[in-house]
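Researcher: Here's the sequence for the chain we discussed earlier.
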Amino acid sequence: MDKAGRISGSLDEGRITFESQRQVVRDPVCGMDIRPERAVAASDRGGQRYYFCSDVCKQQFDAHPERFSGLPEPATDPR
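Model: Thanks. This is the structure I predict for it:
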């Protein structure tokens, strides 16, 4: 087992079951559940880090973060 997770087990009706204690996050674009340490890419927005399963999801998020983060779009310079 790597350092990122722990394993806990229990004996239930003669069966041994194991649960991973690893953190799972959701890609805000496609909804896929991923582990942060296995994410292909990440973006920071509004003090929060978002993780992505692919570069395509990251590119979509970076192009229109307000669609996926629930945060307002940053103001742009009108010049």
